[in-house]
Fold this sequence. Notes:
The chain has helices spanning 29-41, 63-73, 106-120, 139-151, 165-175, 194-203, 226-235, 239-248, 263-270, 279-285; strands spanning 3-6, 9-12, 16-17, 46-48, 82-87, 92-94, 97-99, 125-130, 155-161, 179-185, 206-210, 254-256. The chain is of the alpha/beta class. A hairpin with a 2-residue loop joins β1 (3-6) and β2.
Amino acid sequence: xxxxxxGPFRTTAIGxxxxxxxIENNRGHDVGIDTLHASLDAGCRHIDxxxxxxxxxxxxxxxEKLVREALATWKGPRxxxxxxxxxxxxxxxxxxxPVWPRDGKPEHxxxxxxxxxxxxxxDTIDLLYMHRHDPEVPYGESIxxxxxxxxEGVAQYAGVSNVTIEQLDIARAILGDRLVAVQNQYSPIxxxxxxxxxxxxxxxxxxxxxxxxxxxxxxxxxxxxxPFRQVAAAHGVxxxxxxxxxxxxxxxxxxxxxxxxxxxTILDSLKASDLELTPDELAFLG
Length: 286
Ligand SMILES: NC(=O)c1ccc[n+]([C@@H]2O[C@H](COP(=O)([O-])OP(=O)(O)OC[C@H]3O[C@@H](n4cnc5c(N)ncnc54)[C@H](OP(=O)(O)O)[C@@H]3O)[C@@H](O)[C@H]2O)c1
């Protein structure tokens, strides 16, 4: 398993994105626990979840609670696992469509952060991200709340997610070296965040790709994965492994957090850790 430094945490470059296990269309509690146990057993030591990873109306089964239970019932070394969570989004139904309302009000963020620690069953969260900017609150005010959570020991380190370079600079100015990671969408179908990826490399911040395989919001342009299928055929592996290996090859600051609804897919994704792409293949993939 490939290990890298996610700020102060020495952890696996491939983390487990927990979201599909608890938002709508999940396959139930037991499959969720089995899927998390399968990735931990395979050596994954980084789990990514969020306060808002639940199906709207089903708050009793949140991602954070599932992660807590999976770690409590796992026979392996819990202390080796870095758990990241996020605050600043909620869930709701808009008609028959599940949506992600933003909530960056400082007093709410403080409450969410404390609820996250409780749900995860920890005194101090390893890594706490601001999930997404709430346009009704100046970004700096939300980030001040994150700083308060760090000052109070609710979280040890902070990250920001879905940020522009300008927002990242606001967060850096407030959080200083306790800001260790940026989590932005990045994949062959979503390359718009290349500027923040490059900026993180320059600053020495971890860049964590969310929905690294394109995510669950179909349809998207499947043809973007064709070059990856071509390279995958030559290696005899899934194209998803090639995508993840290509993302990790973008720099030592790169992390990926593929999601999965079942053990088989996360176990396949974790094998990307051992997949080495040649310079020619990387040049071909771009
Ligand atoms: N910060 C944010 O705003 C934000 C937003 C979205 C997501 N995230 C994070 O990013 C994580 C990953 O995102 P995601 O779950 O949307 O998308 P993803 O990782 O891009 O894709 C997950 C989908 O790919 C399939 N898959 C995964 N590995 C596979 C493999 N090796 N072979 C074949 N299929 C494979 C899964 O299939 P199965 O369904 O068959 O298992 C699942 O449906 C989330 O869990 C969450 O932690 C963060």
